[in-house]
Amino acid sequence: MSENDDQIAPEWPFKLLRSFCKDSLIERVEGDLLETFDYRVDKYGKRKAKWMLYRDVISMFRPFALKGINNSNNSIMMFSNYFKLTLRSIKTNKTTSFISIVGLSVSISCCIILYLFIMNILTANDFIDNQDEIYLITSEARDVNNDKFIWAKSPANIESVLNDDISGIEYITRFTKGHAVIRYNDIVIEEPVEFVDDDFLNTFSFALQSGSKNVLYDPTKIVLTARAAEKFFGLADPLDKEMILVINGENIPVTVGAVTEKLPTNAYFSFNILVNSKINPVNNDQGTSLAGATFIKFKNPPVIDQFDNKKADYIQAYNAGKPRYIIDNLQLLRFDNISNTKYTIVGNVVGRENPSTLYGAIFFGLLLLFIACFNYINIALVSATKRLKEIGLRKSVGAKRGQLITQFLSQNIFLCSFAVLLGLVLAQGILLPLFNSFFPFEFSINYWSPYLWLFLLGVAFVTGLLSGLYPALYISSFSANNIFKGTLKLGGNNNYLFRFFLGVQFGITFLIIFSGIAFMSNSSFQRNIDWGYDQSSLLVIPTENYDQYKGLSLKLSQYPEVVSLASGMNHIGDKASSIDVIFNNEKASVRTYNVSPEYINTLKLQLMDGNSFNGDKSSDIENGLIVNETFARQFYVDDIENDVVKTAEGDFQIIGVIQDFHYQNFYTPIRAMAFKIVPEESHRFLVVRTQNENALSSLENKIKADWGSMYPDFPYLGYRQDTIFDNFFREMSIPTKILLLFATISIILSSIGLYGLVSLMLAKRMREISIRKVMGATMRHITLITNKPYIIILGVALILSIPLSQYLVKNYLDQVNAYHVPVDLKIIIPSVLLITVTILLTIGTNLLKIARAEPSSTLREK
Amino acid sequence: MKGTNLGEFEELVLLIIGVLQDNAYGAAIMQEVENQTGRNPSVGAVHSSLNRLMEKGFIKSHYGESTKARRGRRKVFYMLTAAGRSALVKTRELRNSLFSLIPNISMQ
User: Fold this and answer.
1) Mind giving me the DSSP string for B28-86?
2) Which residue in chain A has the smallest CA separation from B68?
3) In angstroms, rounded to a whole number, what is the distance separating the alpha carbons of residues A669 and A680?
4) CB–CB of A36 and B31 under 8 A?
5) Domain ranges of chain A
6) Of A73, A614, A656, B60, which one is least surrounded by beta carbons within 10 A?
7) Predicted confidence band of residue A70 (pLDDT cuts 50, 70, 90)
8) Which residues pair with A564 in a beta bridge?
């Protein structure tokens, strides 16, 4: 060994070793490393010896050799000790712990529900196997205005030629929604049915509770969902039962071939009753008829190329029939991509939730969690005063800041874990049943799902860190010296961050309350919107064919309750037609209702100009048009006598202009529309006006009885005109109910948070207050000096959040509804009042305690 | 307490300590393992085995002299304890008895 061996061994691996290795091990390990290094240089050469040295240093990075971990038992003991301390501090500070834990767990239980909701959307249709082998044929189509759109529909006849043209396709099935009257014994109901092809159940793996996947190969067999089966057969076995389908007046006997299991809640692609397309009387052979959706299933991708080569033929064949909507292109879209395309697919049968619902749910979930966290932060900061001595003592016996932070954080995460468990109990016990009864969902918590537990663990960890980090950093920053000298000024008053938290918390609460109130008043606003005609005391009876229409209208004209009777091929709130108006050489599709001359007067639509239809004037009947205000404005009609409306069907003469009215719900704005007369043979709707609601009820009963005796094979489908928007109101009530629930929870959370905060602060200043009382301070003065900081913070928060809330809510309502309540003082004032009253009540209860307190007893205690 | 089973590498280290007798310290053990088996264990592997053997009570250690090759760092010598010796014996007996139960092992 020569003298310069010393220099050979590089220095830095040893520095590295010293940085992580336990002191007691360093001497022997370094010695061994050096000695082995020399030995290896002789044996393998310098280069290799160096590499082996690096390897050896890194190989020392093992738990037994690491600094800081003396003994694995020790750190477990430390954490179990923190756990014990957490339990004890919960016991000693019952009120504040209660507020923190309950607050957190309430918001966590809301988050669990939102989690279920979000998971339901994210896992939509996941019960269908082999989604990567199923493709939907989408069409790029153009409407009459030449605007392009992506369509779920595709030419219906592709299905019949695809198997001959392309090799390698396993299954093909169309899926077209329709309606049919279904008769079983004495039950006659109109039900939605889905026309599919033989392969449907082989393409989509819907689980069957009875019957086989191949039943659809027999066109006389139908497949019921569990829900449809229950509707017709109750608990009895539906298999092989005979039913009659009435489609377009034809009676078709069928038997139940299979029944599915109950569809899961995330089944956005679903059906009611599957019927083979072969018995669909709507002619499929016609070149221009469309299938609601065509799916193909195949394993090898070359099918896509074959399809692309062939599709020009299909498009040409379809467009040759001069269809209403021209198709430019056909594309294959994989099933698992359907629910997350960037574009909307018109007439999408697979279904997906509006992404804004998803974002809204996540947004409000996070807001609630933040409120609970802020509550916790505020209370933790103030209650830290009680632990100051503990902190001082720990610091003076040598605790490092990092250790204190670890302690506070781990205690906090323990606390949050309690809250999570309690939240789970709350969600299961209270919130979930409440939620399921409010909304058309049937959610349940799957305790075996690893995602659920991962989510809960994540929530506990994140809320623990989020709510604990600031208090932990803040509290551990005090110097022991200042704590014991008593010079430390602690308390929210001087702390800007604390003010900020309190302000943000109340700002968020205000936003939620504001949205709740805005949505609530929007519901009542929309219920009271004038529809533009008199929708009360109107009965509508749709019929299946002309005979039924004629028979029933004769019957109706005999009843004294009937004030006026109108009819039509279309009806407001139900079916509509359209005509293409030619204006400035461009076609514009305009909604049209084909009605009888009496229709305008029976509905009491308001004429602004001109006349109503005159049934005796042949020109009115042949080319008369009554249009709405918007029509007149859009197509510059000012002289109704002379202006002629050119359409694709010929020229029309405007007879009258009526005031705009709501022919549709309030999602969409009122557009140009028109009424025209069609011959009675095509009429299917009967519209009856009665004197009043009582007359309406008695008429309704009579008609129902008549219908039952006249047409026992058909369901009675009559309804009152004022119920046509019920579905819209129901849809709108869902976000309203969610927001009201959130508003209630957030106001409760915030006020118990504020209560805890104020009572802690007052407890700290009890001595000062008692002395002031003894010296003759009035209650008013005390109120002022103790609450000034809160009032200022909350006032500023309120002033800032009013315009913000107004802006957000107005934007949201604008996007969703064409007609909504104005977001003005009528909403601002109640929200401000509600939050102010809550704040004052919360502070007031605390002050009551002070007012009642005997100064002598508080002073004696100290 | 930890179990007292011997792992394969632990057993090897324990045997080497017995072989080296009074000269059993880290670097010597490593070189001996290399010489006897051709394996090239890392320092971390050897020290972690030594640590486990200590915890199990099979070896004890004492500081020795320092040498120039170690740049003044002292050696730590390891010695078998009674428990260590009996663990070696037990393992060997178990091996032998199992070995004798295999019929015609030399034929295969």
Assistant:
1) HHHHHHHHHH-----HHHHHHHHHHHHHHTSEEEEEEEE-TTTTTPEEEEEEE-HHHHH
2) A35
3) 31
4) yes
5) 5-65, 131-352, 356-526+728-861, 538-723
6) A73
7) low
8) A689
**ipTM given for this complex:** 0.88
Distance CA A166, CA A307 (A): 7
A123 contact partners, CB below 8 Å, separation of at least 6: A266
**Taking 90 as the threshold, does the pLDDT of residue A315 lie above it?**
no
H-helix or E-strand containing A592?
strand A586-595
Q: Which residues between 8 and 67 in chain B have a beta carbon less than 8 angstroms from any beta carbon of chain A?
A: 25-27, 30-31, 40, 42-48, 51-52, 66-67
CA A574 centroid distance within chain: 27
Q: How far is B80 from chain A (nearest CA, A)?
A: 18
Strand positions, DSSP E, A632-789: 644-647, 650-658, 673-677, 685-690, 719-720
CB < 8 Å to A61, chain B = 44
Give the pLDDT confidence of A801-844 residue by residue, as tens digits.
999 999 988 988 888 788 888 888 888 999 999 989 988 888 88
Cβ atoms A588, A152 nearer than 8 A: no
The token duo for A341 is 């395309």
Test B51 with A65 for CB contact under 8 angstroms.
yes
What is the count of residue pairs from A and B with beta carbons less than 8 Å apart?
76
Q: For B50-99, write each residue's pLDDT tens digit.
A: 998 998 889 999 998 888 888 888 889 999 999 999 999 999 999 899 98
**What architecture does CATH give domain B8-107?**
Orthogonal Bundle (1.10)
The contact set of A with B (CB < 8 A) is 1, 6, 25, 27-36, 38-39, 52, 55-62, 64-65
Give B91 to chain A, closest Cα distance, Å: 26
Mutation target to probe the B interface, by most B beta carbons within 10 A, among A3, A30, A36 is A36
What confidence tier does A468 reach under pLDDT thresholds 50, 70, 90? confident
Residue from B43, B67, B70 to probe the interface with A (highest A Cβ count within 10 Å): B43
**3-class secondary structure, B107:** helix
Percent of chain A clearing pLDDT 70 (strictly above): 94
Mean pLDDT along residues A650-669:
87
Tell me the longest C-alpha to C-alpha distance in chain B. Answer: 55
Average pLDDT over residues A614-623: 83
Strand-pairing partners, residue A541, are A686
| Cα distance between residue A346 and residue A336, in whole Å | 17
Burial of A241 (0-12, 13-18, 19+ CB in 10 A): middle
* Chain A neighbors of B76, CB-CB under 8 A: 27-28
For residue B26, give the nearest of A32, A58, A62 by CB distance.
A32
Q: Which pLDDT belongs to residue A168?
A: 81
- Residue in B44, B73, B75 nearest the CB of A59: B44
Is B47 in Cβ contact with A31 (below 8 Å)? Answer: no
Instruction: Please judge whether A35 and B76 are an interchain contact, meaning their C-beta atoms are less than 8 angstroms apart.
Output: no
State the number of CA atoms in the 13 A half-sphere of A437 facing the CB.
5
Residue recorded with tokens 């890194």? A58
Q: What is the largest CA-CA distance in chain A?
A: 128
Q: Is A234 exposed, middle or buried (0-12, 13-18, 19+ CB in 10 A)?
A: exposed
HSE of A604, CA atoms in CB hemisphere, 13 A: 15
Reply yes or no on whether the pLDDT at A59 is more than 60: yes
**Closest CB from A6, A27, A60 relative to B43:** A60
Counting every residue written for chain B, the total comes to 108
